[in-house]
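step: validate -> pass
step: tokenize input -> pass
step: predict -> running
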Amino acid sequence: MSSRTALRFSALLAATALVAPTTVAAATPRPTVPKINWTGCGSDPALKAFQCATVEVPTDYDRPRGATTTIALTRLPASDPAKRIGTLFTNPGGPGGPGVPFVQQAAQFAYTPQVRAQFDILGFDPRGVGKSDPVTCYPTAAEEAAALGEVTSFPITPAEDKAYLKANLKLAASCLTTSPDRLAHFSTANVARDMDLLRQAVGDRKLSYVGYSYGTDLGATYAKFFPDNVRALVLDGTLLPSWYSGSDGDRRPVGVRLRQSEGATETFAQFKAECKKAGPSQCPVAELGDPSTVVEGVLTRLKAGPVMVTLPDGTQQQLRYQDAVALTFQYLYEPAMWPDLAAFYAEVAAIPKAAAKAGATAGLKAPRALLEWNNRKEEYPSLGGSLQFCVDAKKTGRPLAYPAWADQTNQRAPHFGRMRSWVGLTCEFLPIRDNDAFLGPWENKVKAPVLVIGTRYDPATPYQATRPYSDLYPDARMLTVEGWGHTTLGKSACADARITEYLTQLKAPADGSTCQQDRKPFDPVPTAEQRTQKFIQGAVVR
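step: predict -> pass
step: emit ->
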């Protein structure tokens, strides 16, 4: 029963006590544990090793025998059934990250042979996401694409600020029209309840879980609700729940509270510094001069006006400042992709200014990084699935103040301050609550040791959150990965070994342990390993 429901019920008892002193509340029945009927995942040969299913869970856990929500699942069965420990639940991040494609694309690369041998690796699309009764903001995908295609990724001028505010108001109205019922039960608290029901459905007495990025918030919520049901938690790339929810009293936008602008700025500085160390032979920007000067020159130039680039089909496309910043933010997640990011800046820097101003760049090919980034955007789930913080996080109540917050943040974190500060704006116009959402306090009573991992230079979940996040658990073992990028996936054999020991033997490293990454960002990467990292990069949610 939610706290709000409990208060209403208490008030009802008080009001009727003299009339009906013997009235007793009926206990809320427990939800039915669903039966999972695993089948194949279709005719695609790449999915032959996987099994798929859907189950029904209560839409509202206060009414467990009422309406239901469909949850899509997939699993990679343990390769050595005789040594099977149980099921390893996963969440790739977000919010809004679908867990089914994450497992199908990354599980065979992301986890060691020993983990794959001893666990069924399970991914599920959280409610409201992917194929789990998704929150959609338009009747069709085509209508959503058309509407969002008219909106810049973030505004940089007063005129664009006004247009962006108006566009988000329209978006919120459309979401409110299309998916009000799904938004009203969209909270991470309900996803945690779903996960515990799924734990029972697979027959595990306790939960083994790996959560990345936003998945660490889901892990913290589960730990708060079900501390006695935890076997092992690996929490990689920590999102501090008090920052996310605003439970610490910070009433700035959630995009400001998360400190992603600062994390990205620090990591971007590392990109330029590592490029300089690598030199022209490994980093093409260094061929043009000091990398910081060259890169900032490109951004300054694009801020003054877009340039035209030619796509493979012969059509031309504007490359705007906002495109370059958004692309940079995404490529900072994976240091193995930094050479491509450097090539992007080198190629744009080489565009003749006179030709760019006149639009006479028909012979200039679009940088490869830009082409790959544009292609990947089409693979993302509906925008509605990423609006979970509309019910999970406190709002400012001041949507018209966002431009000022963006300017203030941009002074501390150039380029990325403007980009990330607008996160949460749509929620300001969405008058929907999930009465079961949990906003703290976040300290929990998990008795088992948990493994908390932070990367020194992480653009999306800044390292500074790692220790405060660890302190939420009675026995957290914090592991620092000395390196770059978002989460440890595919980056550190040392971290993989610590994770494997912990999951398979419950042998957690000492608190304060460290690991190194396998290589520096501009070191040559073997072709096969590069393919593996791209698979993982494409599966981890931004």
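step: describe -> The first helix runs from residue 3 to 16.
step: cleanup -> pass
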